[in-house]
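Worked problem 6 (solution included).
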Amino acid sequence: HFYHLKNARGKALKFANYDAIARVKGIDLYSKNIIILMLDILLVIAIVFSLSGFTLYKEINADSFSYVLVIDTSESMGATDLVPFRLSAAKISAKNFVDSLSAKTKVAVVSFSWNSYIEQEFSDDKDIIKNAIDKIELTNVGGTDIYEAIMTSSFLLRNEKDKAVILISDGQINVGAFDKVVNKARFEKILVHTIAIGTKEGGKTAFGVSKVDQDALKSLSYSTGGKFFSVENSEDMLKCFNDV
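Solution. The predicted structure is:
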């Protein structure tokens, strides 16, 4: 009788243990299903944001940026549709922009056509920066290589926190791979504002009439989170720098 009772109790304990194990496994399976469900939901949310073009914006004071002023000096910038000519108007407006910045804002100056040149490394001395802008001269080269200009700007900005380029050009890009320009700027987290200088009707140059080409400049600014501006007179140029 004792033997049978012990066996019966053993079976009861066994059944109890099986029941506990089943409950634990059930909880474990339930937990795994919840985790998988949550991961699926997060994946769907990520896909929705990706397809909708979701962008995270950070508001930064303009004076906290370090700016590289990049000025096109190719032959087409001698067009007379801006008085007295495109490059001269660009230089005047660039100097006004420098004057509008706070005392501690750092600015560098780059000129470019077929090649790019560092006219002035970063400085917060406004007189030094404006003198560098004054010394920029029109070249007799027709090439416009924005890729090299962005590469040079990236080199100057390598140790800066908030990076911005203001690129002034008539947009007639005929040297360099444009997709590489965008990829480089995005990789380096450089905000590129572009200013298309010139009229649709165009202006006279030594080689004929030069018209502004806005498409590439629009694409560059849009792809890097910057702003695009179209300038057809000196007043437009002043306004766009104020907007920046």
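Discussion: Residues 2-51 form the longest helix (50 residues).
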